[in-house]
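Suppose you are handed a protein chain with no further information: no name, no annotation, nothing but its sequence. What can you learn? This example shows the usual starting point.
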Amino acid sequence: MELKWLEDVLSLASTLSFSRSARERNVTQSALSRRVRQLEDWLGAPLFDRSSYPIRLTEAGQTFLPRAQDILRQVQCARQEVLQQQEDVSEMLVFATLNTLSLTFFPGLVRRIEDRLGPLKTRFCDQRASFGGNVALLNRGECDFLLTYAHPTVLPELDAERFMYRHLGNERAIPVSLPDDDGEPLHGFCSGGTPVRLLSYGNSSFFARRLALLFAERPTPLITVYENPMSVGLKAMVLAGRGAAWVPESLVIDELRDGRLVPAADPSWYITAEIRLYRARQQGRPALERFWEAIAVEVQPERPAEPARTTAGRRNYTRSISAGCDSRNPRSPAASISVSRA
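A reasonable first move is to predict its three-dimensional structure. Written in structure tokens, the prediction is:
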């Protein structure tokens, strides 16, 4: 049984004329008559009384007509649902990204691109994935884009012949601590060999790898008192006074500005990372290509506001960075994010 047979019957039930229905269905009258006969043979009963003029529905035809209408309606609805689903899938942009970037950078990026392209459909892959796990998602083709940090010493393991990236900006990770009563770091570095209570990333995240290199270059007495691969988790423990941690500046800009947190070391201890957006080199869906081209003309990302200067902790964040390390005088410049084209 074919759907066009049902459509033929519905047309013939409406016109009660083979010639008129043939014109309506854009077929010859003999072809229409043959297809109606095929449906009747399949059902095992005539649907039309051809002995009368005009023709009329038989009792079987009257029973079958509403069923045919319902079948066609359901099939058409199912087709529309599938088409809509396919359209939704083709428009959906799938990202693998580090948890911190999903909170601090991604929302603003999408907002600026939507200003150019209109509403976007986006979703994240598994946000529990580690730095290497996110890279693997792109390698396996389970996402369209990888939004990640990168540094010459800690790069995603991606084949340059298969993947490309755009540079979106830079991020600094700053060692931060709760301030003491004088607004100085409760857990500060450069303190004459006294071990620092470190809130650590463990060993699987981007910043964990970057910090391992920093500590190798600058051996430092540390006591690791807590591990969490996510910056937001480390920030919470810093605010609880449990120790010092390197946290992306964009994640603690408000706390640094109002003095709830202070840098735990001078700027020579800060680490900088690129923010990169990776994708496969092969041609992608139209939605993917539109987003990629919009990124190419992306505007300057917003800069964090300059911190206030009303307490010792707030002043510490904006003092000159030209002086040497002093555990009682940590300093940090205001955050600066630059954009370049890939």
